[in-house]
Amino acid sequence: MGSAPPIPATDWLPDDAETETLSLPDGRRLAYATYGDADGYPVLFCHGTPGSHVAARLLAAPARGRGVRLIAPDRPGIGNSEDASVTLEDWPDDAAHLLSHLDVDAAGAVGFSGGGPFALACHRLPEIERLALLGSSGPPSVGTTGRVQQFVGALSRHAPWALGRLFRLQRWVAVRRDPAYAVGFVAEETPETDALAADEVALIVRADMLTSMARGPSGIIREQRLLSQPWPFALEDISVPVSVFQGQNDANVAPSTGKALAQRLPDASFESVDSDHLGTVTAAGDDALTAVQRRTRV
What we know:
Mean pLDDT: 85
Number of domains: 1
CATH topology: Rossmann fold
Strand order of the largest sheet: 1-2-4-3-5-6-7-8
CATH class: Alpha Beta
Largest sheet: 8 strands, mixed
């Protein structure tokens, strides 16, 4: 199958999704976007897997309303961020350089889906005061993922070449199909928000999928492999407060996962959300932003 034809960014990216870049100490380029209130309380947004900074646009309106400056980086190999063998243990170093670059000395962090583990990994950064998880994946020993995610995890470990072909096929199809095609991977139906109609949400989800593979699937494959292996930190060692939001109709991450995470974390709250995977973001995103704004360190 040939590669997809070039597509003007305006055909599938929101107008405000253009990224800025930061040069890391090892010379890599890290791309990021900001949304919400430019002068607000900083919150690091960790996108899903697959996913990109574009997903943060779903929370742009509540971020403005809550006085939050939403900082959404593309992890290595995603969007405009250069690829590298960055692990869950390494990611906080990239995040720390980004926060320093933006003169942030106190922040919250929100992780959606496969971004949850990356948000939790940032607990060791002195800048991070609180965490919130939206439909977050758990370590292999905690909760379960859907059958599709289990299959993808197995391919990432045993046949990454096959998973690469699968992701390229999905992107090839997504370029040519209605945005609802992309939504089908994360939701039963396209949700609406106070600020976004269903068709706008679908466009953002499609743009998120396409951006996640803009540099090819290698970054996503690496992350899928990382998330299917034991994590390099213990949940019991996370001392910052964590708010866990879990959709009860989530087909990507089992509802029991969120509750199990909250039970294992030393300082955690749990909220059940009447939603599917994507709906957890649109329904509980405002609450997640509110939760991480509470300052707990002096």
